[in-house]
Specification:
- Its main location: nucleus.
- It is a single chain.
- By secondary structure, the protein is mainly alpha-helical.
- The chain has a domain of 37 residues.
- Helix content is 49%, strand content 12%.
- It has 4 helices and 2 strands, in the order ααββαα.
- Strands 1-2 form a two-stranded antiparallel sheet.
- The relative contact order is 0.05.
Length: 111
């Protein structure tokens, strides 16, 4: 096994430029099973990626005009409430049960 300076001297004197490049790109990763392990580095680092700029959002003035127009049309219609969803129906039932239970435990007395 060569020391690092002897290895570099041998690389500079004996190898072609292509062999030199591939050898210099290897780095020692440690020793495993009594042998040196090498980790090969990529030949080129890819350039950083810069995504294209995002176009500006469209103006909201058109949407607000459209919304005002719809509100004027809707003012002629009667207001219809949405029905309760499952959770709200469940809670409405539970509130009544809980109130009845609390009233029966208190005996009608409140502090």
């Amino acid at each position: 096994m060569m020391d690092r300076s002897a290895e570099l001297e041998w690389i500079l004197s004996e190898m072609s430029p292509a062999e030199m490049l591939s050898t210099l790109m290897e780095t020692r990763g440690g020793i495993g099973n009594g042998q040196e392990l090498y980790q090969v580095l990529p030949a080129e680092v890819p350039p950083p990626y810069f995504p294209p700029p995002v176009p500006a959002a469209p103006s909201l003035s058109y949407n607000s005009k459209k919304r005002r127009h719809n509100e004027q049309q809707d003012s002629n219609r009667p207001y219809v409430r949405k029905p309760l969803n499952a959770f709200m129906l469940y809670m409405k039932e539970q509130r009544a049960l809980l109130k009845a239970e609390v009233d029966s435990k208190d005996g009608g007395q409140r502090p």
